[in-house]
Write a structure and sequence with these properties.
This protein is mainly β. The protein is built from 4 helices and 14 strands.
Length: about 250
């Protein structure tokens, strides 16, 4: 569902300008789509590349999104194994999708409240020691208040603890990619995509210091599905595109 929502959002977000082309092959069928558009958006220190087309004559929709760590100023190669990269194709035969099988959380800016105990440096009576072990000694003292004082002085002590609430960043902050994969800390897994992969090469064309168009190639293994039927892996080959780009602030 999120893929179809993204396609509709793309049509609204990207202003109209000159169109580009996208070609690819799935199985024995070749696709040539026209009317493609792309945009670059800066968000939270990242650069998001969005490429999409809705070719009504071919009854096919295509969308590719990638989150880049740096501005697109030179050719780069990315994949679903290392980058937040996804693609979706929808046509009369069904839909084809690919997303990273492992997604890394990005809430490092958040602060979460944790409950913790701490020692005050003082001592207090251990509630598990009720003083019954000293009753005989206490009974030898006839004064009640002296008995109570004796029991109190003889009870086992323990460090006094208090509870406080502190705000901290997520537990995975500061861990390397390898450490997070090994521990599973701060990651989400899409196991149905374990046997998929998608590779993309982006080559920007720059004029007067700005990206004006992007060409590229792509290919890999996607999941194909129809309705609620189980999805199956299918290869996509010979993917290429050349599109003008709108850079949004």
């Amino acid at each position: 569902m999120r893929f179809f929502t993204a396609i509709l959002a793309f049509v609204v977000i990207v202003p109209a300008f000159a169109d580009g082309e996208i070609t690819f092959k799935i199985g024995e069928k070749n696709y040539e789509l026209t009317g493609a558009q792309a945009t670059l958006v800066k968000r939270n220190g990242k650069t998001q590349f969005i490429l999409g087309v809705r070719d009504l004559s071919k009854r096919t929709q295509f969308m590719l999104t990638a989150e880049l760590d740096a501005p697109l100023t030179a050719p780069i190669e990315i994949s679903t194994k290392t980058t937040s990269l996804s693609a979706v194709i929808v046509n009369m035969q069904g839909f084809y999708t690919v997303v990273p099988s492992v997604t890394f959380s990005k809430d490092d800016f958040m602060r979460y409240t944790y409950k913790e105990e701490y020692e005050t440096g003082e001592m207090e009576d251990d509630p598990t020691d009720d003083g019954t072990g000293h009753i005989k000694e206490c009974r030898q003292n006839r004064l009640a208040h002296a008995c109570k004082e004796l029991l109190h002085s003889k009870r086992r002590k323990r460090p006094k603890k208090r509870v406080r609430y502190v705000k901290r960043p997520p537990t995975w902050v500061g861990k390397t990619r390898t450490e997070r994969l090994e521990s599973g800390d701060g990651i989400a897994r899409e196991q149905s995509y374990d046997n998929t992969v998608f590779l993309v090469r982006l080559t920007p064309q720059i004029a007067q210091g700005k990206v004006v168009s992007v060409s590229g190639t792509f290919g890999g293994v996607l999941l194909y599905g129809q309705g609620l039927k189980q999805q199956t892996p299918v290869p996509l080959n010979a993917g290429s595109f050349s599109v003008p780009v709108k850079v949004l602030p």
